[in-house]
Amino acid sequence: MDILVCVKQVPDTAEIKIDPVTNTLIRAGVPSIVNPFDKNALEAAVQLKEAHGGTVTVISMGPLQAKEALKECISVGADKAVLISDSLFGGSDTFATSYILATAIKKLGKFDLILCGKQAIDGDTAQVGPAIAEHLGMAQLTYAAKIQVDGNRIVINRETDEGYEVIEANLSVVCTVVKSINQPRFATIKSKMAANKAKIDVLTAADLSDIDPTKIGLKGSPTRVKKTFVPPKREPGMRIKEETGKDSALKLVEKLVEAKLI
Ligand code: FAD
Fold this sequence. Notes:
The chain is of the alpha/beta class. 27% of the residues lie in helices and 24% in strands. The strands form 2 sheets. A 9-stranded mixed β-sheet has the order 9-8-7-10-6-1-4-5-11, with helices on both faces. It has a two-stranded antiparallel sheet with strand order 2-3. The chain starts with a strand and ends with a helix. The relative contact order is 0.17. Flavin-adenine dinucleotide binds next to helix 1, strand 4, helix 3, strand 6 and helix 4.
């Protein structure tokens, strides 16, 4: 089966900095990693390839530095990697991003399965996978914690707050995966060296001749960010730990009386 995995390069930090003028992420000077959920999606793809044969293609939309992320994907089992990169794509919101990715996927050919992570750890919207399915007119299965394929059927365990839903569909589908689906493998020194030499194809806007220029970049993005801010850190709570439980309870009552709460 031919599988495509969407991989996003994300900043390796929990403290995202935002440009106050454009309200977009400042990436300069921040080390980057492969979005952790996308590593799970890639591992799922490589395991399916090992079980059923076929190919694994990875794509990423981003600046040229995202080639590094794609090489990392090759070092852990992807056969081919394509970067979608053009300054015309800058400022794209989730609608435009998913539209550009879907247009690129159509150009690359037919895939039995398109895998995404459940969300990116920087943007965090979890919209791009489902939106790619919409743009391509494909069925979508989300939050997969287990994927089984038998011929043309795919069965997933869909993770929910209460447990799992078992969902079946006919291929081809778009499927997003959660962390618990697997433990991504590590590259070996040999596979890293081979991946370093791999050729990463780059597709620009001009290569995607079908693309509608009014649907890409900041101008083609229906989202407008009005304000962004880092929420204030919560003050740590007070710990009461006296010699005995009774003393702790008395101390607690004392504090509550002091604060005029009782
Ligand atoms: P999610 O929807 O949470 O990602 C889910 C999954 O989709 C991922 O696990 C991955 O499998 C796949 N995926 C997501 N993004 C990509 C990708 N790029 N390539 C391949 N697969 C992917 N971001 C910029 O980097 N530069 C900008 O200039 C920029 N301008 C923006 C302007 C506006 C007005 C807005 C609203 C956002 C902008 N962003 C920009 C953020 C950008 O739109 C999102 O990062 C992007 O759409 C992905 O959304 P997300 O991070 O929420 O991903």
